[in-house]
């Protein structure tokens, strides 16, 4: 146990976490030069392209220093606010953290919130100044930032470069010297914490855990404390480049278990594994059942693909327990599913995976948060995950919406503009702290729904990219919300409805109509676009009819041309949906998210 080191990496996206992790794997001979792919830790194509570690993984390295044999467990953490609970569990499984900061960029908001989490969990922090090879590196300034933040000595900051290999040996030495060995009682009953799980099509769910006390042995009858389910530990072992089966995984170590579990939602991150025969007294603290934050409808472009979509979603859910869905129907779009996601990025990822891995073409409707509507009668509570489910305003007493605590870190030049944006988004500034002379952290409370509506892009634009954003949900607050409906060709399109604050309703209605006019192609006839609150029309635009019937040419008998056109359309995956008589492209359903 004294020669085990468990650590994670805290870094902002693109600060070089994967590159540096690969260097560690290489230096410890965990991975050979030949095996070395660009980024060994990110094994999904999608992740590599996006440069975001969606799911945390773990890997074990053997390392010899001064004739002592050490076991280093690197636990990877996803670097996005949508996955912050998983990050918190990964951090809880470690004794130390490498804090990687891009020497040309400095510290970003996401880094800071994860850093705070690590400090709260008493992790030993090893600060690393990465990308030192870049001509734009600002070692003094960024070292000052780090020293300010964690109160270390400047000499503790390790200059490094994943690209040239600078500093890698120093990092390994620091891991051994500074990170404490795990504690725990090897004689106690088994207590292990699950920090991640992955789906393997042949073996089912593989759960990753950290053993806090006792040992897990092959063949044990084990129990997952929070779900209450029991399994046989068919195979256990540690994680090298591949799974390495073992007879036992002992106190302090990180391992995996395969026990014939088929569904991701049976394995909950944060849950405790113990044995049925000799169970531990307490579950590991900090378990949370993660709830989706953002909801949207997903519909097949072709109504006939509904069953196939259901099949694909079920498959997706097998390896992504955070995805929830239930059937719903829309007057405009027919049969589809109301899906719950951890956040906006998670929603984009699911949509992309449906298209890439399952070859589905889908329409995603306006995302929304989960509202609470209280009825006048008996104060009955209705959870509203779809604006169309909002009860009749006459019967409603009031509505509550979820609030978040948001943190933005930016350069002082942009503080004014960001404060203006925050107020426009119904936010309330709660704090402003200068982290360094030029870097400010702004904290504010604001409705979660405003993050869904075009927040990231606006923030990026007004700060010229020099702002990072992080948030966590706090509470529900009463709000003056109303349903804004959209009518196309005089027919209400339920999939375009949104709940908005009364004070914004007119402006938003106007903007949405304008945006839709831009996005919906002209058709054979004139299409009025209207925004309405109840029976009252608050905005109107008109899409003029096409002057000449250009498509008619294609249908004039030249069948090969028609087929060619159809094939071309199919190849281009034109996501168009017929709504009443109007052809509506996918972008139009998300118009409300991208208003200028
Ligand atoms: P996420 O997976 O998105 O969290 O990113 P990451 O932090 O893992 O960063 P990654 O290792 O993928 O590196 C991001 C980019 O920076 C890539 O284009 C790397 O080639 C580049 N990069 C990484 N380390 C260095 C470095 O030390 N020097 C230079 N010049 N570039 C680097």
From TrEMBL:
Stored InterPro entries: EF-4 (IPR006297), EFG_III/V (IPR035647), EFG_V-like (IPR000640), EFTu-like_2 (IPR004161), LepA_C_sf (IPR038363), LepA_CTD (IPR013842), LepA_IV (IPR035654), P-loop_NTPase (IPR027417)
A GO molecular-function descriptor: GTPase activity
GO biological process, one term: positive regulation of translation
Known EC number: 3.6.5.n1
Residue span, Elongation factor EFG domain: 399-484
Keyword Lipid biosynthesis among UniProt keywords: no
Enzyme superclass (EC): hydrolase
Cellular component GO terms, alphabetical: plasma membrane
Membrane topology note: Peripheral membrane protein
Transmembrane regions: none
Catalytic activities: GTP + H2O = GDP + phosphate + H(+)
Sorted UniProt keywords: Cell membrane, Elongation factor, GTP-binding, Hydrolase, Membrane, Nucleotide-binding, Protein biosynthesis
Subcellular location: Cell membrane
Keyword Protein biosynthesis applies: yes
The GTP-binding protein LepA C-terminal domain, residue ranges: 488-594
Boundaries of every Translation elongation factor EFTu-like domain copy: 204-274
Residues the record lists as binding GTP: 14-19, 130-133
Main location: membrane
Domain of life: Bacteria
Pfam family, one: GTP_EFTU_D2
Chain ranges of the Tr-type G domain: 2-180
Family to which this protein belongs: Belongs to the GTP-binding elongation factor family. LepA subfamily.
Functional description taken from the UniProt entry: Required for accurate and efficient protein synthesis under certain stress conditions. May act as a fidelity factor of the translation reaction, by catalyzing a one-codon backward translocation of tRNAs on improperly translocated ribosomes. Back-translocation proceeds from a post-translocation (POST) complex to a pre-translocation (PRE) complex, thus giving elongation factor G a second chance to translocate the tRNAs correctly. Binds to ribosomes in a GTP-dependent manner.
Matching PANTHER family: TRANSLATION FACTOR GUF1 HOMOLOG, CHLOROPLASTIC, TRANSLATION FACTOR GUF1-RELATED
HAMAP family: LepA
Official protein name in the record: Elongation factor 4
Organism: Parvicella tangerina
């Amino acid at each position: 146990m004294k020669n085990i080191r468990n650590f994670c990496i805290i870094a902002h996206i693109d600060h070089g976490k994967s590159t540096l992790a690969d260097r560690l794997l290489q230096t410890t001979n965990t991975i050979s030069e030949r095996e070395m792919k660009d980024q060994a830790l990110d094994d999904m194509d999608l992740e590599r392209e996006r440069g975001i570690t969606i799911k945390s993984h773990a890997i074990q390295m053997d390392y010899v220093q001064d004739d002592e044999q050490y076991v280093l467990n690197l636990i990877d953490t996803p670097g996005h606010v949508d996955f912050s609970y998983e990050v918190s569990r990964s951090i809880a499984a470690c004794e130390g953290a490498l804090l990687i900061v891009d020497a040309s960029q400095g510290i970003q908001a996401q880094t800071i919130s994860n850093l705070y989490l690590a400090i709260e969990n008493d992790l030993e922090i090893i600060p690393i100044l990465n990308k030192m090879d870049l001509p734009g590196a600002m070692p003094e300034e960024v070292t000052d930032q780090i020293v300010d933040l964690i109160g270390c000595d400047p000499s503790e900051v390790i200059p490094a470069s994943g690209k040239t290999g600078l500093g890698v040996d120093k990092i390994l030495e620091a891991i051994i010297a500074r990170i404490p060995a795990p504690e725990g009682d090897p004689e106690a009953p088994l207590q292990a914490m699950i920090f991640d799980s992955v789906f393997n099509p042949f073996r089912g769910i593989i759960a990753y855990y950290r053993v806090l006390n006792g040992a897990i042995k092959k063949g044990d009858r084990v129990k997952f404390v929070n779900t209450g389910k029991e399994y046989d530990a068919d195979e256990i072992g540690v994680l090298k480049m591949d799974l390495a089966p073992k007879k036992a995984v002992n106190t302090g170590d990180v391992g995996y278990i395969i026990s014939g579990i088929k569904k991701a939602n049976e394995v909950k991150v944060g849950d405790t594994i113990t044995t049925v025969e000799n169970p531990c007294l307490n579950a590991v603290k900090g378990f949370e059942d993660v709830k989706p934050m953002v909801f949207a409808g997903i519909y097949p472009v072709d109504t006939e693909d509904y069953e196939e979509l259901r099949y694909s979603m079920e498959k997706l859910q097998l390896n992504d327990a955070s995805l929830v869905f239930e059937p719903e129907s829309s007057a405009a779009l027919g049969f589809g599913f109301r899906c719950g996601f951890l956040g906006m990025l998670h929603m984009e990822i699911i949509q992309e995976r449906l298209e890439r891995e399952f070859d589905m073409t889908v329409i995603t409707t306006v995302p929304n948060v989960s509202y609470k509507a209280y009825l006048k009668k008996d104060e009955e509570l209705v959870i509203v995950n779809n604006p169309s489910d909002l009860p009749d305003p006459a019967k409603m007493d009031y509505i509550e919406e979820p609030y978040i605590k948001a943190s933005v870190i930016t350069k002082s030049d942009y503080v004014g503009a960001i404060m203006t944006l925050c107020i426009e988004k119904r936010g309330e500034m709660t704090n402003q702290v200068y982290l360094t002379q030029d870097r400010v952290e702004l904290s504010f409370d604001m409705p979660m729904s405003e993050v869904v509506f075009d927040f990231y892009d606006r923030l990026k634009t007004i700060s010229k990219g020099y702002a990072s954003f992080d948030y966590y949900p706090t509470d529900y607050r009463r709000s003056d919300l109303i349903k804004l409906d959209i009518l196309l060709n005089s027919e209400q399109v339920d999939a375009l409805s949104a709940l908005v604050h009364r004070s914004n309703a007119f402006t938003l209605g106007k903007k949405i109509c304008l945006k839709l006019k831009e996005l919906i192609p002209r058709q054979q006839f004139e299409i009025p676009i209207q925004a309405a609150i109840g029976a009252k029309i608050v905005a109107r635009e008109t899409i003029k009819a096409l002057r000449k019937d250009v498509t008619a040419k294609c249908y004039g008998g030249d069948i090969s041309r028609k087929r060619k056109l159809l094939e071309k359309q199919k190849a281009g995956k034109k996501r168009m949906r017929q709504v009443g008589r109007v052809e509506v492209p996918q972008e139009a359903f998300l118009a409300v998210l991208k208003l200028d």
